[in-house]
Design brief:
- With 88 residues, the chain is mainly β.
- It has one domain: Folate-binding superfamily (Folate-binding fold, 2-Layer Sandwich).
- The protein contains 1 helix and 6 strands.
- The strands form 2 sheets. The chain has a 4-stranded antiparallel β-sheet with strand order 3-4-5-6, with no helix packed on it. It has a two-stranded antiparallel ribbon with strand order 1-2.
- A hairpin with a 3-residue loop joins β1 and β2.
- The longest helix has 9 residues.
């Protein structure tokens, strides 16, 4: 079992967390004008880099979203931080 650290609640088991998205991925706008293919690309086509990755995660227990930087090869969590405008 891996331990992730919620910036609001502290260290918890990984089962309490859910992946949200790649950090910095721009949502296509304006939504009514986006094709189905472009929307599917945004939702399902992720870079999934080997090594260092910045991702948005949610801690299901408290409901807070945050940024986690981790190494996808070693599974090491490098940093966690509240989203801008949220204080941990």
């Amino acid at each position: 079992m891996q331990i992730f650290t919620c910036p609001f609640c502290g260290p918890r088991e990984e089962t309490e967390f859910h992946f949200g998205a790649e950090a910095g991925k721009a949502r296509p706008e304006p939504a009514p004008e986006i094709s189905d293919a472009a929307w599917a690309d945004y939702l399902y086509m992720n870079e999934a880099p080997r090594g260092r990755a910045r991702e948005i995660w949610v801690h299901l227990t408290c409901g807070e979203f945050f940024v986690m930087e981790r190494d996808t090869v070693t599974r090491e969590v490098l940093t966690v931080a509240a989203l801008p405008g949220r204080e941990a």
